Amino acid sequence: MKVKDLIKLNGVGEEFLADGEREIEAGYAGDFLSFVMSNAPAGAAWFTVMNNVNVAAVAALADVACVVLCEGVKPDAHLSAAVRERGINLLTSNNDIFSAIKNMVTNTL
């Protein structure tokens, strides 16, 4: 699944799309940034409720395909600027993290 395809799913919105053609190779859920840095696979769709500027730095370090802010969380101004500066795909979902991931997995099988 490509990032642009994830945007087509119910409840997923686009905040910033740097590379919609980027392939999503895995999924990762987590809010502890140190865990994400250590464990998120490159190319993952990272599902979180964290919305601060550090998310952009961690996403870049982990080389995730996109960040999906769940549960209706919107990025703060610093995060919005940082993802644009670093070219990170940033999506939002009104769904809780479990449902957002389930939705992605169900639509890729």
Strand order of the largest sheet: 1-5-4-3-2
Total DSSP E strands: 5
Number of domains: 1
The tally of helices reads: 5
List the SSEs and their pairings.
Elements lengths: L2 H5 L4 E5 L9 E4 L3 H7 L4 E5 L5 H9 L3 E4 L7 H10 L3 E4 L3 H10 L3
Parallel strand pairs: 2-3, 3-4, 4-5
Antiparallel strand pairs: 1-5
Helix pairs in contact: 2-3, 3-4
Can you describe what's shown?
The chain contains five helices and five strands. The protein has 109 residues and is α/β, with parallel strands linked by helices. The chain has a single domain (3-106), classed as Udp-n-acetylmuramoylalanyl-d-glutamate--2,6- Diaminopimelate Ligase, Chain: A, domain 1, CATH 3.40.1390.20. It has a five-stranded mixed sheet. β2, α2 and β3 (44-48) form a beta-alpha-beta unit. The longest helix is centred in the last third of the chain and has 10 residues, at 77-86. The chain starts with a helix and ends with a helix. 33% of the residues are buried. The model has no long low-confidence stretch (mean pLDDT 95).
Keywords for this entry:
alpha/beta; Udp-n-acetylmuramoylalanyl-d-glutamate--2,6- Diaminopimelate Ligase, Chain: A, domain 1; five-stranded mixed beta sheet; 38% helix; 109 residues
Task: Write a brief caption for the model.
The protein is of the alpha/beta class and 109 residues long.
